[in-house]
Design goal:
The structure holds two protein chains of two kinds. By secondary structure, chain A is an all-alpha fold. Chain A has eleven helices and no strands. In chain A, helix 6 packs antiparallel against helix 7 and helix 7 (156-182) runs antiparallel to helix 9 (198-234). The longest helix of chain A is centred in the last third of the chain and has 37 residues, at 198-234. Chain A is globular. Chain A starts with 11 loop residues before the first helix and ends with a helix. Chain B is built from 15 helices and no strands. The longest helix of chain B has 37 residues, at 193-229. Classes of the chains: A mainly alpha, B mainly alpha. Chains A and B meet through helix 5, helix 6, helix 9, helix 10 and helix 11 of A and helix 1, helix 6, helix 7, helix 12 and helix 13 of B.
């Protein structure tokens, strides 16, 4: 991937092992890593892990409605008699999907825009892209995402679209800043003198050297995207019932509040644990990359 | 003076960006499927009534004409008719904006004071159990969305430990003739202190729920920048010269260390407004953000555009305010701008 840095000798598996060794020196990063793996596995194998897999859909079981947490129902049941724990496990799917889709569209797009603007610094295309990002940064991202999602039809796709529209600008900013500094590097200059095309310089020379900060920001952002997605589904703009979403579960549960506290508290805890895991892992990556740069 | 030229230039560009944003929002709101006039009047209205409203709202005109008509009236301070309340959006905003401003200002004060304080406390007790405890608290604060805090606070203080009021701006029956619309300020101006106390107590929970995120972030930023700065040469020199620890800490270490915290403040004020959208609904706080969410869900386009414009405008003002604040605290910024 990046053969210009001197600390990257050895095969890919060697490099991974070395990176893992450094990461594992920080216990909190390991906790984050394990948390992320568990969450991802739980989301993938949700039908096998959830004790009542059918409860993710339209099921009514009034006999078991409003049960407090017990061994049979770890997080209690809702007014429809559905198992809250199973619904949380299934809600992980849309939550993670949201983060993955939003980032996998907004990061490449934003990074490319930022690199192009930075490479052609001072040109018309630079000011066009910079002004465009300014427009999207003129209001707080959550408000823009809320209004875009509200104007469109409320569903998971449009919620993803709304968050993606607001998210790419941050990566454009980040990549722009890095591209401006990289412009002065000798290897970029020499590639220019050798007649390399701008496409080659941006994607083959600059991009590999921007990857580590971008990957770190991605891991940290995963948590923030998930929080934003939960906020959207909290007001009803996201995955529509009966499919479970963490934000919707919290807002529905809040109506039954003091007595049936488990309806709110457990989905809330789930959000906190997901975001915490990604943040711990992201912090670990940041330390990892910053020590790499110091060496 | 250079710093003011810099701020003016930035403000101008922000205004341009805001115009750009208004074009995007406007286009988006006019191309979405669904007829706003039909939605406002409901399915039972006659075709003639819908057509009349459509003409009144200028929905029958081309979109470019609609946009210029809209922007012209916005510049005159008229945001059009709200389809949700059937009143002028400007009048609605005059009622709701002060409540949100009051909430956001109190939240901003809480998060600055306690965030920086906790950061300082963690640095001062670096490595001790206190430090670990504060770091865990800060971590929880960062990873919990503020609407979750709001719901949990409701549960905790509203029902389990009822010491603080959880709904509305004042107790039933209490109120004050508005001057600014911010009840605490108004009641103090009118020397009605029981109402001021009552309104302030009502502010505490929503404002704290709103402030938690930013507070935790500020605590973390302050702690890490204080620890970075404490290894700087000038601190080492001052220690060598025998200045007391206290003096170094508060006089020389704190000031440069709060700069990173202050510079993220503008973004955080934006986040406060954004999160107020959810927190206000939970605490039944009759503010602009709750109005905004309701308008969004109702697809009340004039109200949504107005709320976005107002928030964008407040965001610009917050940015100017923070730029000036940083210039006051950090002489290096003034020097750099003067070059």
């Amino acid at each position: 991937m990046n053969d210009k840095r001197c600390d990257n000798f050895g095969s890919f598996s060697d490099k991974t092992r070395r990176a893992w060794y450094r990461l594992s020196k920080n216990k909190l990063s390991v906790v984050g890593f394990v948390g992320v793996v568990v969450i991802v596995l739980a989301a993938i194998f949700a039908p096998f892990i959830a004790p009542y897999p059918t409860h993710a859909g339209k099921v009514v079981d009034f006999l078991n409605a409003n049960q407090p947490p017990s061994l049979a129902h770890l997080c209690g049941t809702d007014p429809m008699g559905r198992d809250v724990f199973s619904r949380i496990i299934f809600a992980l799917r849309s939550t993670l999907l949201m983060g993955v889709v939003v980032l996998s569209i907004s990061v490449p797009f934003g990074t490319t825009m930022g690199l192009i603007a930075g490479y052609f610094q001072g040109s018309l295309i630079d000011s066009l892209i910079t002004r465009l990002t300014d427009i999207f940064l003129a209001v707080p991202p959550l408000i823009l995402a809320l209004s875009v999602a509200a104007l469109l039809k409320p569903n998971l796709m449009n919620a993803m679209l709304a968050i993606t529209i607001t998210w790419w600008t941050w990566y454009a900013r980040l990549a722009y800043g890095m591209a401006v500094t990289l412009n002065r590097e000798y290897y970029v200059r020499s590639a220019q003198l050798l007649g390399a095309s701008w496409m080659h310089i941006i994607f083959k020379e600059m991009l590999p050297n921007c990857l580590s900060p971008i990957l770190t920001k991605m891991t940290l952002d995963m948590g923030i995207v998930i929080m934003t997605a939960a906020a959207l589904s909290f007001v009803g703009l996201g995955e529509q019932p009966p499919t479970p979403a963490l934000g919707t579960m919290i807002s529905d549960g809040a109506k039954y509040m003091p007595t049936q506290w488990w309806l709110t508290v457990f989905p809330a805890l789930a959000i906190m644990i997901i975001v915490l895991s990604f943040n711990l892992l992201g912090d670990g990556f940041r330390d990892l990359f910053s020590t790499e740069e110091k060496q | 003076m250079e710093i003011f030229r810099f701020i003016c230039k930035r403000t101008l560009w922000s205004l341009v960006a805001l115009v750009g944003l208004s074009i995007i929002i406007f286009t988006l709101s006019r191309v979405v499927p669904g007829d706003p006039a039909r939605m406002a009047l409901g399915p039972r209205a006659t075709e003639e009534a819908v057509e009349a409203l459509r003409i009144e709202l200028k929905l029958d005109q081309p979109i470019i004409y609609q946009y210029f008509h809209w922007i012209a009236s916005v510049l005159k301070g008229d945001f059009g008719l709200s389809l949700m309340t059937m009143r002028s959006v400007t009048d609605d905003i005059k009622i709701y904006l002060p409540a949100t401003l009051e909430l956001v200002i109190v939240a901003a004060i809480i998060q600055c004071v306690f965030g920086i304080l906790l950061g300082v406390l963690a640095t001062a007790s670096q490595g001790s159990y206190m430090d670990y405890f504060l770091r865990i608290i800060a971590y929880i604060g960062v990873v919990t969305p503020s609407f979750v805090f709001a719901v949990l606070f409701m549960l905790l203080f509203g029902y389990k430990l009822p010491i603080l009021p959880v709904l509305g701006r004042t107790s039933v029956g209490l109120g004050v003739q508005p001057i600014t619309g911010m009840i605490v300020v108004d009641s103090i101006l009118r020397c009605d202190f029981p109402v001021a106390v009552d309104a302030f107590v009502h502010l505490l929970l929503p404002a704290t729920a709103l402030a938690m995120n930013g507070m935790a972030q500020l605590a973390r930023i302050t702690r890490s920048s204080m620890i970075d700065n404490s290894e700087r040469d000038y601190i080492v020199m001052e220690t060598a010269q025998g200045l007391s620890k206290k003096e170094i800490f508060f006089k020389y270490l704190l000031r440069p260390s709060v700069i990173p915290a202050v510079s993220v403040l503008a973004l955080q004020i934006g986040a406060l407004f954004a999160n107020a959208f959810l927190v206000e609904s939970i605490f039944n706080w009759p503010g602009l953000s709750r109005y905004g969410v309701e308008a969004m869900l109702f697809k009340d386009l004039n109200a949504v555009s107005a709320v976005i414009c107002i928030v964008g405008f407040v965001f610009i003002i917050a940015n100017i305010f923070v730029d000036i604040l940083v210039a006051i605290i950090d002489p290096r910024v003034r020097l750099k701008a003067g070059e």
